[in-house]
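[job 4471] stage=fold_predict status=RUNNING
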Amino acid sequence: MNSRQRRGVILLLLSVVCALGAFAGVLSVIDDAESKVGPEVTAYRLKNNVKPYTPLATSQFEKIRMPKRWLSPNAVTDLLQIQGKTAVTTLRQGSLLQNDMIVDQPALRRGEQEVAIMIDAATGVAGKITPGSTVNVYATFEGEHDGAPDQSKIIVTDARVLDVGRMTALDPNADDRDQKPGDAVPITFALDSTDAQRVTYAESFAKRVRLALVAPGGSAGVPAKDRTYELAKDK
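[job 4471] inference complete, writing structure tokens
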């Protein structure tokens, strides 16, 4: 082997060594990246907005893969978890689905319907009313004309609470100029058609709507004569 051949062999060996070194460097970078990112898992992202209390279906979500370490512990990783569930609040397009965004679909009795209204958190809920609670619904109305007394009315008794939503800031730009910004909670009831009209009317026109918790196993039936209160008539 002459000197030219020896130089060629040496250069070839050096090229192989450099290639192996580069390959080892790439493997090191990949291993480092994998160690920092970790294994990937399945998650589900919303294709479009979903309104509150809407039953959920697999067609509303798209499957994605993402590093497990970046996923919230309560993220939904199996769409079997949405069977028989509804959205507890507005679900935004592009959001990752999480367990605290969904609740069981309530079982309505014959003749009942779901009705959700916003209740002032400070005056109506106070964190003690939960799904399954029974409540009386009170509403305070202004007098029908100047000089007429304000009245407090029990408009519904023994209303069954299906769901208590997330606390939401009231709109400070609402049409009612007397409405001050605050917090409200969407409460969903199971009501017959008459009581459903009563609570929606109260939400729209009453100065305040309050809920009174009824003791478990009890009944809060109130005679018709005792359902309206005026301070002037209090003895």
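[job 4471] summary: The chain has a mean pLDDT of 78.
[job 4471] exit 0
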